[in-house]
UniProtKB/TrEMBL annotation:
Residues 115-134, 532-561, 608-638 are annotated as: Disordered. Substrate binds at residues 212-213, 276-282. One of its GO terms (cellular component) is membrane. Residues 3-507 form the Myotubularin phosphatase domain. Residues 629-638 have a biased composition (Basic and acidic residues). GO terms for molecular function: phosphatidylinositol-3-phosphate phosphatase activity. It comes from Ustilaginoidea virens (Rice false smut fungus). It holds the Pfam family Myotub-related. The active site is at 276 (phosphocysteine intermediate). This is Myotubularin phosphatase domain-containing protein. One of its GO terms (biological process) is phosphatidylinositol dephosphorylation. SUPFAM superfamilies: (Phosphotyrosine protein) phosphatases II.
Amino acid sequence: MNGWEFYDPKAEFRRQGISEKLPDKGWRITHINHDYSFCDSYPGVLVVPSKISDNVLKYAREFRSRNRIPVLSYLHPVNNCTITRSSQPLAGITRKTNVQDERLVAASFSAWMPGGSEESTHPTSQQESLDGGWQGSNLSEMERFEDEPTSRYAAIYDEETGETRVYGRQQTNMIVDARPTINAMVNQVQGMGSENMDKYKFATKSFLSIENIHVMRNSLNKVVEALKDADISPLPANRELLHQSGWLRHIHDVLDGSAIIARRIGIKHSHVLIHCSDGWDRTSQLSALAQIMLDPYFRTMDGFIVLVEKDWLSFGHMFRLRSGHLNHEDWFSVQRDALAGSKVQPGETDGRNDALQNVLSGARRFFNPSKEEADLATVSEVASGKVVDDEATTPKMVSPVFHQFLDCVYQLLRQHPARFEYNERFLRRLLYHLYSCQYGTFLYNSEKQRKEARVGERTSSVWDYFLCRRQEFRNPDFDPAVNDRVIGKERILLPNLKDIRWWHQVFGRTDDEMNGALDAAAAAESGRHAAVSSLKESPGPRSVLRSASGTTPPPGLINSHSVLTAGETAHQTLTPETRQASLRHSASADSASAFAAIRDGLQGLGIGKAMRDPAGRADGSASAMPPSHQEEDMREMT
């Protein structure tokens, strides 16, 4: 099959239940952008609320950066809740508003199925009834999250009729701003910003605090810096620098934000609008990952290809700009250190003149920038205006956004190996071909640019490579039955945010080289928990201490038990008679307070005997103190 024809937007939205020939689900396909004049970075096929006309869209686009209005990306097949995406609003410091944009967002959050009953259990009572079944169970938090949608679907899915009873039932619709709050405020000073929620009272807003492209680029550069010396020396990777890179923290933040969106849709039956600055970097990450968590189709090879085509390629992620495919002098500059000690043969040059010319040329360009370079300087994550079509590589615009997305998918695949049809090598080879430039798929920034360049006629699609090698990239652990691909009974998939590891295969390193420190830390933590658990469960004075109080011990009390136990063991070895006496005394002590029990144990150890004045006399002030005073002192110490 021709890889260029694999993705059909109308076929994908038909799979989601949206088509001119199907019953209205509150959404329609518009061709307002068929020639890309409405928005040059959006696809030609857009899905918008049925009640919103194209005329309203024309006025609404003036309020969104680069005219990227809120449009549909995903419609949940069971509860009719949606993921819509856009760019930031042009609110500015005056907090401007746009009635048409408000109408568009409101319509997106209230789409419903004609003929469906909107009656359902009150959200609070419904939550209580579903949560009640978990009380007393041994399910982990992750298992409860995965089973919750199935239980919740039982309340809205009629197995006899095959229909859902609730359509678009909103509990807490959300506008997700992927940026840190301070970044949104800075953009607001520049004439952009975030929504004024006084005008969007039908939703709440959440800032996910995912860093921008510049932070991510610097983070990956630090990872490379930590690994590069291991290629030319026997020294291992610099684990300290790996930790300082913050790469795993960024992966955690992206996965966490995606899981919030997935829960909001699959569990709380709410609509979500996602945007960052221009809506083509972090927005694509969050939207695509949330759909992988929600829809088993995107965990298959065909579904993943459709997802990349839909949420990355067609919605205008700037692959050429972010990947640095085009020329730049930094790619060819010769460093002086690399020339040191080199031997120059007769008739050859040592390259120093070329390096000097590069420096002088760069200086001339810096002090005398051309018009094209001046335009490129304004192309940033927060800049508005038209993207230059034939720009050279701008190093500050290069960022591993798609790399991060694949890393996040790898984390999900590693944690849930039976839920994905494709394997780790599939993701790794896709990342390789992002930079190989062997295929035309990732050579341009938008659908419009690809059509104008006629890449379908002049190049091959990267999907040709994968589709003719399906067996090589098939996951042997994949179990299709686990995903329950019956419509209405899909199981949500969520990440374990405490189990994020380095994708060591991408960097050509062993698991121990990159994850050895993580394994050691996890083993230490596991050992600590095991020790604490054994101390809690083993019989002896600790059980007396636990039963000495009818209330939950304050924080730090368990640590006090551990210290006391260590002291008791040493003292028992030296003076067993005294130890047995202390145990008998503790067992017969008044159990009205845990602090009193600890006091008795300390007295049994004879720790107070070691407290003597310089003359060698025992300090009897503590023992002479009434018991009530001792208890007060113990409370203050705790």
